Amino acid sequence: MAVTSPLLDKKTADRVRAELETGGKDRGELIFKTMIGATLAFALLVLGILLFDVITGSWPVFSERFGSFVSRGTRTSAEETGIFQGLRGTFWIGVFVVVVTFPIGIAAAVYLEEYAADNWLTRVISINIRNLAGVPSVVYGILGFTVFVGLLKGIYGDVAFSQGNTIMAGGLTLAVLALPVVVITSSEAIRAVPSTLREAAYGVGATKSEVIRSHVIPYAAPGILTGTLLSLARALGEAAPLILVGAVQGKLGPKSGFFELGQLGEKFTAMPIVITHFASQPGDDWQPVASAAIVVLLLVVLSFNAVAVLLRNRFEAKRER
Amino acid sequence: MAPNPERLLRANPRRQLKERLVKALVAAAALLSVLISIAIVASLVVRALQFVTGLMAPTADTMDEATGPVSLWNLVADQWAPRFFEFGIGTLIVGSLLVTVIAMALATPIGLGAAIYLSEYADARVRRIVKPILEVLAGIPSVVLGFFALRWISPNLVQVIFPSAGGQNLLAAGLGVGLLTIPLIASISEDAMASVPDALRQASAGLGARKRRTTLSVVLPAAVSGLVAALIVAVSRAIGETMVVFLAAGASGNSAQFTANPLDRGSTMTAAMASQASGTDGTISELGFNSLFFVGFVLFVITLLLNLLADRFVRRVRQSY
Fold it and tell me: For chain A, how many structural domains are there in total?
C-alpha cells in the first residue's frame, strides 16, 4: 500500500516508506552501533594483547626454571635472577594494609555513616577523604619518605642495613594510600543497610554500638569486603610510592626468610619494584624475567580483584531478589 | 516518641562507658584522615619552601660553574637537571601536558563509546560478561602497563608508524596512560548514563526517535555532568600517573631536555620525582633533592583543583535525579 497524502511530496513519501520497510534498521543507526561496539571491542582487544604478550613472553622462564625463579633473590644476570624478595615484600605490604587500613578504614566509615552529625566537621572529613582518594600515588611516597622513613630512621638509626627505608615504612605508606578507598566503599556499603534493620535492633533494647556490631556490619560485610579487597589489590600493584620511600631496585643484601619478623627493619623491595627494575634493564634478555614477574604479580592482584567482583555480583543478585 | 538511648544508658554505667569508648574510637579513625592530609601538605610544603628560599639565597654549594650562583631564574631553564641546578619546571609541565593530551585523545572516545554501548545497547548477558573484564583492565597495575607501553606499544605501533622515534618516547607513554584511564572513564560515565531516568528514553522513543537519536540527543545531554566529571577525574589520574611514564618515556638519567615533540624522550612531573628518588647518584645536593618536593607540591595542587572540580560535577548529577 502506498503512502499518499497531500502533505507529502513523492520524494518524502518514498523516504518514509523506505524507513518503514527497513524494519528499524537504517544505515546511520547501524554505523553508530558498530562504532561504539568497536570501542568496547578495542578495550577488550588491548587487554587480550597485553595478557598474551606477557604470558608468551614469560613462558621461557616458567618452563625452564620456575623453582629457581621464585626462590632466588635478585641477581645481576637475567638468567639467574629471581623474585623471592619481591614476593616477600609484597606479602608484608599486604599484611600492613590488612592490619592497619582495614580496621581504621571501616571504623572511619562507621563514624561517618552512623555517628557523625550533619555539621561542618563531618563535611570537612568527607570532602577530605574524597580528595585523598584522588591524590597521585607518588605524592603518598613523599608522605612516606618524610613521615615513616624519617620516624623509623629515628628508631633504627643507620643499623640494620637501612636508613629508615624499611618494609615497615613501605607497608605503612601503602596502608595510608589504601585508606580513602576503604573508607569510601565501606561508607557506601553501610549506607545501603536498610534503616528498618537498625530500628528492629533498637526496639529490642540494643545500644548503638551493639546495633552496629550485630546488624549493620554483618549486613554491610559483603560490600565492605569487596571494597577492601579492591583497595588491597591496588596497593599491592603500586610502585611509585615505594620508589620514593626507597625500595631497593636491583641487588638486595642479606636474605631473611619469608616470614621472619626481623626483616621489618631491613631494606626491602616488592614485586612492582622488581618489575620496574627488570623492565628498565637494557637489552632483550631481561624481557622474559620481566614478563614472568608481571604474570606472578597479575595472578596475585587480579585474583583479589576477581574475588571482589564475584562477591559483589553474587550479593547484588541475592539482594535484588 | 522515640526512645532516648542516652537516658536508658544512664542506668548502666558500664554500657554507657562502652558506648562512649566506641564512639571515641571510630571518631578518632575518621579524624586520622584529616591528619593524613595535613601530613601530606606539611611534608610537601616544608621542603618546597626550602627549595625556593635556597634558590633565592645562593650559597657556595649552589654555585653553577657555567651560569654563576643559582636564582629563581633557574626555574625557567631549558631543561630539568637537578644535579646541575637546572630546574626548568616548564619542561616537566609540558611533558605532563603532552602525555595527558595523548592519553585523553585515546581514552575519551574509547571510554565513552564503551560506556554508551554498555549502558544503552548491550543486553544483560553481554553486560554481565564484559563489565568484569573491564574491571580486570582497571585492576592492572600501572607498572605492567608501563612495561607494555615500553615493550609492545613503542616497537609495534609508534616506531612502525614513525620510524624516527626512539625506543622510549612520550607518545608510547601517553598511549599507555590512556589505556589506564579507559576503564575509569567507562565506569564513571556508565554510572552517569544509568542514572538518567528511563522515562526520558521512553518519551524520546514515543516521539519516534531511534536509539541513536535518543542516546545522542537525550541520554548524553542529561548525563553531561557525570561525563564531564569522568573526564576531569581521568585527566587528574593521567597527570598523576607515574610508572608508565617512568618506564616508557625515558626519564632515566635524572635529567630531561625541553621538548614539545611526542616522539622524543621526555619526562613528566611524576616521572621526574620517581627518577630523582631512584637515582643512584648519591652526591645530589640538598637543593637538588628539595626540588623533588617542589615538583610534588605543584603536582598536588593541580590534581587537588581537578578533583574538587570533578566533585562538584558529580554532585550536580546526584542533585538533578
Answer: 1
Which A-chain residues 87-146 have CB contacts (< 8 A) with chain B? 103-105, 107-108, 110-112, 114-116, 124-125, 127-132, 134-143, 145-146
Min distance A304 CA to chain B CA atoms (Å): 9
Domain holding A169, by residue range, is: 61-320
User: A285 and chain B: CB distance < 8 Å anywhere?
Assistant: no
What is the complex's ipTM, to 2 decimals? 0.90
In which residue ranges of chain A is pLDDT below 70? Answer: 1-8, 16, 19-25, 156-163, 253-254, 320-321
The per-residue pLDDT for range A252-301, each reduced to its tens digit, is: 766 777 777 777 777 889 999 999 999 988 878 899 999 999 999 999 99
A35 assigned to some structural domain: no
Q: Which residues in chain B come in under a pLDDT of 50? A: 1, 280-281
- Per-residue cell: B310: 570533578
For A154, half-sphere exposure in the C-beta direction (CA atoms, 13 angstrom radius) is 6
Q: Which residues of B touch A127 (CB under 8 A)?
A: 311
B259 lies in the same domain as B110: yes
Same domain, B50 and B98: no
Query: Based on the domain organization, do B179 and B105 belong to the same domain?
Result: yes
* Same domain, residue pair B86 and B203: yes
Sign of the dihedral through C-alpha B212, B213, B216, B221: negative
* CB-CB under 8 Å, A54 with B148: yes
In whole angstroms, how far apart are CA A197 and each of A104, A321, B209, B217?
24, 18, 44, 42
A297: closest CA of chain B, how far (Å): 9
A26 in a structural domain? no
Asked if B133 and B22 sit in the same domain, the reply is no
- For residue A271, give Cα distances in angstroms to A84, B74, B212: 9, 38, 46
Residue A1's pLDDT is: 47
* The dihedral sign for the CA sequence B310, B313, B319, B321: negative
Q: How many domains does chain B have?
A: 2
In a domain, B66, yes or no: no
The number of residues in chain B equals 321
Residue B265: its H or E element = none
Domain with B180, as residue range(s), is 75-320
Q: Where are the alpha helices (DSSP H) in A165-286?
A: 167-191, 195-203, 208-211, 217-237, 240-245, 271-279
Q: Are residues B33 and B99 in the same domain?
A: no
Are B242 and A138 within 8 A, CB to CB?
yes
Q: Cell 522515640 identifies what position?
A: B2
Q: Give me the CATH number covering residue A143.
A: 1.10.3720.10
